[in-house]
Amino acid sequence: MKEIKKDINEIITTDTVLFFDMDGTLVDTDFANYLSFKTAIQKVGRLDKEIKFNPDERFNRTILKREFSSLSEKDFEDIISIKESLYSENLSQTKLIAFVWDILNQYSQSNTTVLVTNCREERAIMTLNQHDLTNKFTHKFFRKSIDNDFHINKFENALTSLNLNPKAVIAFENEVFEIEEAIKAGIPIENIISV
Fold this sequence. Notes:
Elements: E1 17-20, E2 27-28, H1 30-44, H2 61-67, H3 73-86, E3 95-96, H4 98-107, E4 112-116, H5 121-130, E5 139-141, H6 154-162, E6 169-173, H7 176-184, E7 192-194
Parallel strand pairs: 1-4, 1-6, 4-5, 6-7
Antiparallel strand pairs: 2-3
Helix pairs in contact: 1-3
């Protein structure tokens, strides 16, 4: 994977397709996400533990189950539903990640730019609109799931849908698992910018 410090202008040509993840790569949404979960947990009540913000670990469904192992399935689903409805209230707590934003802004007029996120479409569009990013992308791919949480490789999905050669793609991603997925999809490791 290339280091962020490498001059990106040396590797992007007019034929390069740029893939951008959203959460944690283009936009730091961790604190807004945490606040939404925290309020949802408080609204459901009956939970004896308060969660603290950890800047090194995004609070998600897996951590919710880990931290509240005795949570009933109904309470779990209620928390998720409430959390999703509260996210818009916390949008002001999201912020652009400057390095990636600069690249998107610089190349969105000359190159094909593709949002590849595992975020639900409604929340992703809300976040993009908050930062005036919606029109910066040629294509957008959101969470695609066949059955509940069945995982689909977001990079493979975008490559197949757009009939792209993975060697023509430079991908910006922050999660190790998703970087591995990009490699599995055929994007060369040297074309993956770890944010």
